[in-house]
Design goal:
Layout lengths: L5 E6 L3 H12 L4 E7 L2 H11 L3 E4 L8 H11 L5 E5 L4 H10 L3 E4 L4 H12 L4 E2 L1 H13 L4 H4 L2 H11 L4 H8 L3 H15 L4 H10 L12
Parallel strand pairs: 1-2, 1-3, 3-4, 4-5, 5-6
Helix pairs in contact: 2-3, 3-4, 4-6, 8-10, 9-10
Length: 220
C-alpha cells in the first residue's frame, strides 16, 4: 500500500455484494479494501483491529444492525468515518444512520459512480447523500410529521428494528448485550415517544412510516 492510499473496510452480509463493490473501489487510484465483515459485531471487532480510514456499512444484517454498529464504532473512535451503503430508501434510516455518526448515505439502487463519488466526498470532509435519499429527506421535512427517526435515539431505533423483526425481549437483550429488564424499559419508552399503547399500534405506525417492510434481517 502506498503512503497516500486510503484503507476501506466493507460491511455487508452478502459476500457477493462485497466482492462487487470491492472490484469497483479498487479500480480507483489510492483506494484499497483491507477488511470485510458480514455483520455488525464482526465490523466492530475488525475496526478496532485494522483501523481503516473508511467503513462502508450495510444497515440490515443478522444480529447487530448497521446503525448500532456505527454507534459503537463512533463511540470507540469519534473520528471514525462511516459511509452507509444500503437498499433502504426510507428517510428514517438515513436520519438514524447520520445521527449515529455516518458521514454519508448511498442506496444500492444508485449507479456505481455514486458510491465512488460518495467515498471521495467523505474523505474530503463532506456529507455524501445519493440523489434519491436526498429527495426522500426533503420530502420527510416537508411532511412535517413526527417520525420514529426524529424522536428515537440510535439505540432505541435498533431495538425498534428488532421488535419489528419479531425478536423477543430475550433475543434482543442477547444481541445488544443488554439485560431483559433494560430492553423491556426501552420498549416502554419507545411506545411512549411514538404515542402508541400496544404492539399492534406500533406495527401500524411502522407500516405508515414505511419501516416494517424494510426490516427483514439479511434483506438489505
Amino acid at each position: 500500500m502506498t503512503e497516500d492510499s486510503r484503507s476501506i473496510m466493507l460491511v455487508d452480509d452478502h459476500a457477493i455484494v462485497r466482492e462487487g463493490y470491492r472490484a469497483v473501489l479498487e479500480k480507483q487510484p489510492g483506494l484499497r479494501v483491507v477488511a470485510e465483515a458480514g455483520d455488525g459485531a464482526e465490523a466492530y471487532r475488525l475496526f478496532k483491529e485494522r483501523k481503516p480510514d473508511l467503513v462502508i456499512m450495510d444497515l440490515t444484517m443478522a444480529g447487530i444492525g448497521g446503525v448500532e454498529a456505527i454507534r459503537r464504532i463512533r463511540q470507540w473512535d469519534p473520528q471514525a468515518s462511516v459511509l452507509v451503503f444500503t437498499m433502504h430508501q426510507n428517510a428514517a434510516f438515513a436520519v438514524q444512520a447520520i445521527r449515529a455518526g455516518a458521514r454519508g448515505y448511498v442506496t444500492k439502487t444508485s449507479p456505481p459512480e455514486a458510491l465512488v463519488r460518495a467515498v471521495f466526498d467523505v474523505f474530503a470532509g463532506r456529507i455524501a447523500l445519493s440523489p434519491d435519499i436526498d429527495h426522500e429527506l426533503a420530502l420527510s421535512r416537508l411532511a412535517g410529521e413526527a417520525v420514529a427517526a426524529e424522536v428515537l435515539t440510535a439505540r432505541e431505533f435498533e431495538v425498534l428494528r428488532l421488535l419489528l423483526a419479531e425478536r423477543s425481549t430475550e433475543e434482543i437483550a442477547e444481541t445488544l448485550h443488554l439485560s431483559p429488564k433494560t430492553v423491556a424499559n426501552l420498549r416502554y419508552l419507545i411506545k411512549g415517544k411514538l404515542g402508541v399503547g400496544s404492539d399492534i399500534e406500533l406495527v401500524r405506525l411502522a407500516l405508515r412510516q414505511g419501516l416494517l417492510a424494510q426490516t427483514e434481517l439479511g434483506g438489505a
